[in-house]
Amino acid sequence: MTRVFHAPGTTPIDPPPGLKQLPSPGEMFVSPKLHEALKKEPGLAQLVPGRERGLIRAHGLAHPDELYAYIGVARDQLKGGRPVTSYGRPYTDDETVEPSTLDIVRFTLAGVVLLPLAVYLSVCARLSAASRARRLAALRLVGLSKKGVQRVNAAETVAAALLGALVGLGSYASANQLISRIGLPGFRWYPSDGSLAVSATLVCLIGCPALAWFAGAFGARKAASNPLAVRRTGVEKPPVKWGLLPLLPGLGIVTGYCVAGATGHAPRDTPLSSILMPLAVVLVGIGLVLSLPILSRSLARSVAHTSRSLPVGLAMRRNEVEPGGVLRVATGLVLLVYAASLAQGVLIELDQVSKNTSPVQSYGLPLDGITQERQKAFEAVEGVRGHGMYAHSWSNSEVEFPPVIYAMVATCSQLRGIVPDIGRCPEGRPFRVTNPRETYNQDSRPGADFPFHLRNAAGELLVRTVRVPKEQVGFRDEAGISPLSSGDVVVPPTFLPEGFRPEGATLILAGSSAPDSVRSVLDGIGGVDPTAKVDTPGVVVTALQQITVVKTILAMGMILGLVIGVAAYVVAAADRAVERRPQVTALALLGARTRTLRAVQVVQVVVPLTVGLVLAVLAGKAAESSYLVSGGGAIFWDAAGVPLLLACALGAVVIAALGSLPLIGRRIDPELIRRD
């Protein structure tokens, strides 16, 4: 929720976007979503005090679900305000997500969506490849040039791609109108915000046909260069070994980062990593595609030599002489599993960015302008299990860097609620704290005296001296978000006279770091004082929404990639079945049963696909770990994601097997044999 508290000044100004006038003290304008929330949750009214005057219109909001309010208050109620002369200018806040992380998100989306899309386009460009190749070869034999044959094929593909691009843009426009009103998990948007710009439309209308042109020209290269080789009895050339070349350096870079992370020498956001990591991901992805026919042919040859099963032998012989068919059928699903593992690594890093890794979440509230009654109300908020006042010593010395110490005013039980991992605490006596992982404050020497200024509600000033005690207590702060530092002094509340507080002190509250608990405490603090400024170390509250949006975008990208990958498999498998009909008919005429032919079809698809998916899982997990190592996070190895990846791979194999069964029919068409 974003709340703008406005106190009228002497100079009139124009209202902010979405409003016709500014709210007067005691009035407020709210967004439509907040208006609905206030009806469902009356308790939210304590966060937005005032009488609702109207709603903020759409052009004053970022999206329909935004919780936004302009609240009018009196000048004496506005703490820490600043003069405002105009509204409506662009404002850039601090970065909530690092640009390097967003670059990786874009790169991952490109891998999850564009790689399967490229495979899908290449597969579609080869639809009915056998019959079309014979037609193109006939054109070549009657005198058409090589380039002419390629242009004919490319022109046909471009016409289909242009029609598809127009249908796709129309489908997107309809989907944008529908989904923007329904919303996605975590965010919604206005339909106008999701409309395609002219530049994006031109990219789609020009880019898709351009890709189709190159794919069509490449697909006709074989028929144009050697038309006699496209006859059904033509033997496909074996794949060359250089297809393994991209895979080796890519795996080398990935392995290097994994070894660096395992040995404790992980690089931390170095410029070289921003170059090597994307390069390694691309090389491994290309290597997986190019090495699949090589590995499939080698495996098929060895299995065919040793197998005594007729279906397995027939399937492996087919894969041995036609390894390119494996590339078309299995590439989309292999790349999808590989990209899904990378996307999982990005989600892990985003989770580290947004989540407090400490079991304790602390809250800091400056006590200036807060009454003692309100302070006690803050300390009694539900979910708060420890509290204390944190202040520094005062000095009017002319020395540029005078010695200073920090003191925490709290009992031992209150302190344990803030810092659970602390040693035995002497109740009722001052002591200093030390952390072996931090540099000790050299000013905090035992026996040194430091003055602290204390004030009461009437403004009376009192100076108390704190002497650094010899007694020390150790504590640990693995997450690095504890308010205490090594060398700080802890004094009991009896150190303060009745009604006095340290000048410039900060009230420290602590509770569980569970998201529900954090939300409950923040709501409670807002209920005590809606304008209270709260510091939440370890959690960037404003970043949680944006990270949710990023996660949703990644999830949508993975869903799109899944749909495209499965579509590429279905198209490739159906096309391959059409090409295989004469061979299947010949085997049927020779006496092969339908059950045997279906087993052959399943085996020749499932075996190479399984090999490719195993490689994709291994390479994907290695690439994911190397990305996490290069990103400088706390998590390098994510074993929790392995079952999900294996389940996805198993599901792909099952889909491939089930999709292969209907491709073998019971009807025998001898005409397919006579044509040969």
Description:
The chain is an alpha/beta fold and 676 residues long. 51% of the residues lie in helices and 10% in strands. It contains 18 helices and 14 strands. Strands 5-14-6-7-12-8-11 form a seven-stranded mixed sheet. Strands 1-4-2-3 form a four-stranded mixed sheet. A hairpin with a 5-residue loop joins strand 9 (449-455) and strand 10 (461-467). Helix 2 (99-124) runs antiparallel to helix 10 (323-354) and helix 7 (247-262) crosses helix 16 (594-631). The termini are far apart.
- Helical content (DSSP H or I, runs of 4+): 40-55%
Q: How many helices? A: 18
Summed over residues and divided by their number, the pLDDT gives a mean of 81
Total strands: 14
- Measured on Cα atoms, how large is the radius of gyration? 34 Å
Q: Which class best fits the helix and strand makeup? A: alpha/beta
Low-pLDDT sequence parts = none
N-to-C span: 72 Å
Main sheet: which strands, in order across?
5-14-6-7-12-8-11
Shape: elongated
What composes the largest sheet? 7 strands, mixed
User: Strand portion, in percent?
Assistant: 5-15%
Q: How would you summarize what this structure contains?
A:
The chain is an alpha/beta fold and 676 residues long. Helices cover 51% and strands 10% of the residues. Strands 5-14-6-7-12-8-11 form a 7-stranded mixed β-sheet. Strands 1-4-2-3 form a 4-stranded mixed β-sheet. A 3-stranded antiparallel β-sheet has the order 10-9-13, with no helix packed on it.
